[in-house]
Amino acid sequence: MTPENAVMTDVEMVTVVIDGFDVTVPKGTLVIRAAEKLGIQIPRFCDHPLLSPAGACRQCLVDIEINGRAFPKPQASCTIPVENGMIVKTQLTSEVADKAQKGIMELLLINHPLDCPVCDKGGECPLQNQAMSNGRSESRYEGVKRTFEKPVSISSQVLLDRERCVLCARCTRFSEEIAGDPFITLNERGALQQVGIYEKDPFLSYFSGNTVQICPVGALTGASYRFRSRPFDLVSTPSACEHCASGCSMRTDVRRGKTLRRLAGEDAEVNEEWNCDKGRWAFKYISSKERIAGPMVRGEDGELHEASWPQALARAAAGLKGKRAGVLVGGRSTVEDAYAYAKFARVALNTNDIDFRSRLHSDEEAVFLASRGVNFNVSYRDLDKADHVVLVDFEPEDESPIVFLRLYKQVRKRGLKVTTLSPVLSRGSEKLGAAIVEDIASISGLSEKSVIVVGERAAEVIGQFTSVVKLAQSTKAKVAWIPRRAGEVGAVVAGAIGNLLPGGRPVADPAARVDIASVWGVESLPAAHGKATWEILEAAGDGRLDAVVIGGVDPLDISSEALGQLLGASTFVLSLEISHSAITAIADVVLPVAAVSEKSGSFLNWEGRPRFFEKAIADSLTRSDLRILSMLADEMGTPINLPSSQAAAKELQSIGEWDGAKADAPSVSPATLTAPSGDQAILHSWRQLLDLGTLQNGEPNLAGTARAAHVLISANRAKSLGLSNGDLVKVSTARGSITAPAQIGKISDSAIWVPRNSIGSQCIANLGAASGLVVTVVKA
Amino acid sequence: MSKLSPVLSAHWDEADSFTLEGYKRHGGYNAVSKALAMTPDEVIALVKDSGLRGRGGAGFPTGMKWSFIPQGDNKAHYLVVNADESEPGTCKDMPLLMANPHVLIEGMIIASYAIRANYAFIYIRGEVVHVVRRVQQAIADAYAAGLLGKNIGGKGFDLELVLHIGAGAYICGEETALLDSLEGFRGQPRLRPPFPAIAGLYALPTVVNNVESIASVPAIIEHGNEWFQAMGTEKSKGFTLYSLSGHVKNPGQIEAPLGITLRELLELAGGVRSGHTLKFWTPGGSSTPLFTAEHLDVPLDYEGVAAAGSMLGTKALQIFDETTCVVRAVLRWTEFYKHESCGKCTPCREGTWWLVQIIRDLEAGKGTPADLDKLIDITNNIAGRSFCALADGAASPIISSIKYFRAEYEAHLTHGGCPFDPIASTIFATVGQP
Ligand SMILES: Cc1cc2nc3c(=O)[nH]c(=O)nc-3n(C[C@H](O)[C@H](O)[C@H](O)COP(=O)(O)O)c2cc1C
Ligand code: SF4
Ligand code: SF4
Ligand code: SF4
Ligand code: FES
Q1: Centroid of ligand 1 to alpha carbon of B208 (angstroms)
Q2: Is the pLDDT confidence value at A42 over 90?
Q3: Which of A121, B60, B202, B376 shows a CA-CA span of 20 to 30 A to B183?
Q4: Residue B201 beta carbon below 6 angstroms from any ligand 4 atom
Q5: What is the CATH number that goes with domain B326-423?
Q6: Which residues contact A638 (CB under 8 A, 6 or more apart)?
Q7: CATH of the domain spanning B20-229, picked from 3.10.20.600, 3.40.50.11540, 2.60.120.260, 3.30.420.40
Q8: B58 in ligand 1 pocket by Cβ < 6 Å?
């Protein structure tokens, strides 16, 4: 029995007759949905399978009779659950239902503007389609249509044409029920009813783009897409989001080689039908002015010059061959690219000095990742069923938005208990009704049905991974590791880290090395434990390494010294990049790589679930990292034989999961922090979803909804500093300072919080650190 | 005067009828002691057996509604009294609260006790400031007298009573919109199920009753079912307030047994405006299909009115004599429904907007007789298709007026406008006066 069948047998089934056909569905199924099972399409606007029924548009009226008793009037099929003995007649078999539907459609259209020729939705519009299938051919309306000023912006990225709105309340229900951001509501009454925002508060939700997608008309449009295209000119490709480890399924719409929009794809197991605004709207980076057009080589004059591929590859090979080199992959590679980097490091550079962690990291974290293996055995389903979810150094709304939506769904539905190990009660935690706990030892009430979600920032707290593993062992709770970036989980599995070979094989295990050496057709693999990112940079700085190969890395994500370390020594730097960056500025050779939409491949989301995507921009000539690494390895005479992402995927697949002993779990004792006194506080930060991340470049409408930088302080600290909300506060270290408005909120008295990488608040650049540091806080 | 059955209105003519003393002088609050001596279930059973039906419009049996509240569920229960009274022509709850607010409070104590509610609310429309003040004072006096609050009458029953002042929206009289409004949201009807008895105010079991329904309870407790059932008809028991307005000599409230006819009521009210004859009337407010002179002998109880093709509704009898243009009257009502449509559902929101335009044109003599059929067709696409009963109400005057007065509509078209003298129907008209 498949698990699905197992679920089905638990549920009571009900058989109803619709238009003369029997259909058996689980009890509680709505009539409109039961009809879908028979292929009978009842027209609808307000109905949405993931939103609570509204019954507002009345387009879905059908005739219903139960055990011989007919309802006196047609009923909204989107609000009525099936019952045994029910006989339903839709527009196909009931004249009354057909006339009722046509009547509603006529009424819906009397005030609808004739915008179709210019409307974004034209060509894919449920109103157009259903007006054709279930409407009268001619309107009897002779009056003047209601008009509104158009459009009004309800945020910098969402525009509203009120006269196009059919008042189905999908957008408002989504915002309230799914996102927990009830910032838009229906206002006024009668024919003047309209969607609106609160007087001074725009629609600042990380999920607002979903309302544009589910609006059944063109009332809500995305500022960046409005008037840009017609749906029938677009070529759509199923794709996966490259931004975070939630792993949204997406659709990329391209016209003549240019991505014009991206939509949330459907995947019931992962993102259902939603995504976040970053995934939807942050794609302009691929067409930025900074995009690198061709290979470049630094000349005698110290400047980068365009070069041919053979020239550039020869130069790169010369800089690497036989040298002591390290590899920094970056957290955004596809699984296939990460695998190519992993193989290239071992085969072409004969080293385990490779690390995908382009952020604050620790050895304890690497040990944790190795000890975990690659079969994670934890999924969104476990969150759905959990009795208690503990968040450790993890802010789902900012760091993995779909995880947030899934948790919020359960919080709303059944009051799922959420605890967050943090000194801060964030807006996201508040929505989840999370309890804040500052000491992991005081977390109780976990069972084998609980999930501990640990984020990448645990690496910033000494002993945190050790405590998490202990807590999980003592309670049998599952552990999920959810890093922020889309490529990190895949990079672990691909072996793009110093202590692991592909498939979770410990480098330290000779059998594991023999395994991989034989697949790769090499005699042996390097045995030394590889350096971590910070060690690679340090070694580059002091001359212990001759060369570094760098994928998509922002040095300021790692430390304020990183760039200096690369620049300082006469290290050879090879940069594989999409756009010009701090690294290309110092690189000796720059090789342009394909962006996600220009190649095919896959990511692994935090569950370890593959998220495959096809090349959306068919005629792109750019090459993926793995193709370039393969050419380079050939040039060096140490081939890695990965001509395509399919080949890489196949090879990694054939290697499979390690069945030998895993590394031991980390055992690091926590550091005891000295409580700060007076003006001092412990710095706390994380990256907000919308911030200065480079993949958000080129999209000002999206940036307009980013949460502004502020310094979060406790009421007691505010009192002792004589501060009120909005007063400027200065946070400083020996290195520098951040000055931003104060926001008094729920945070421990000893801590302060600032965004890690937002306008006016870039922790590593401004303060030299991002967390755990003692800072001085004064009124500015 | 045997036609009258003054119970609620028995002492309205006394100067202090609205005070606690005035109410107590005639046995006020005796029923509370009697009810608190019974078990809650006994009270429910008694009200159920009495045959009392809701006076808010739909006529749902009151005791049965109370019995739907789940018992022993360890949840708070609420009683909410609907004092939104906004149906055109309806003016019974406001005069009742003006003249005797204590009878409602007494009824609420009994009802709350029966349904095990320790919180009760009165949702009153905001425009009636004078009534609000009287009810406020009455509640304060009842608290001071120990009739509300903790341990009422020393019987261990607690009740807090809150008066909530609405902003004056017709839709907030619809019970689920009322609950949303009471919770602080914009008043729009809720999807049912769940019904208020299961998930009402703050998603807890709630009884919503009309003012008059609850105010009728003390007398039933006091005098018993035999007394109550001696009044009224077979399925419509008891006394009720009929409000007469319009072209009638003495407009106002007449309390009579259910089943009385308009002919009898007009006799009591001094007849139609002198020198004039009855043309059409509403039996239960503007949301109920119109009647004409041929319906003068229809028994005004739930069954009688329904059998004649309308509804008893709120027993708001608006009387129109032959000077009234039915098209104009219907247009006014339709404008009311358009203005009051909450906007939630398509047929009502868009439909009432359109209907006003069509009827306005017809009144102005624009159009052809075919437009009347179009009007009927569009109205039928609205009625019975909407989310709540407001739109059904909007359809009632249109369909019924065309049924009885089609020729009058057509006369507007042939006449190129309204053939009536609008002044003639006003109260200050001299035309036709003797
Ligand atoms: C549009 C609309 C307006 C209503 N207005 C009122 C009202 O003002 N007062 C009232 O008691 N009931 C009103 N009702 C009826 C209520 O929904 C509800 O049926 C009533 O309050 C129940 O009380 P009862 O059982 O005591 O009659 C209205 C219903 C609709 C559909
Ligand atoms: S804006 Fe779109 S989704 Fe929102 S109510 Fe209007 S039609 Fe529905
Ligand atoms: S939640 Fe993550 S995967 Fe989904 S769209 Fe947003 S950034 Fe992309
Ligand atoms: S019929 Fe629809 S629009 Fe009209 S008041 Fe009821 S819910 Fe609102
Ligand atoms: S789809 Fe059923 S009422 Fe809107």
Answers
A1: 9
A2: yes
A3: B60
A4: no
A5: 1.20.1440.230
A6: A347, A348
A7: 3.40.50.11540
A8: yes
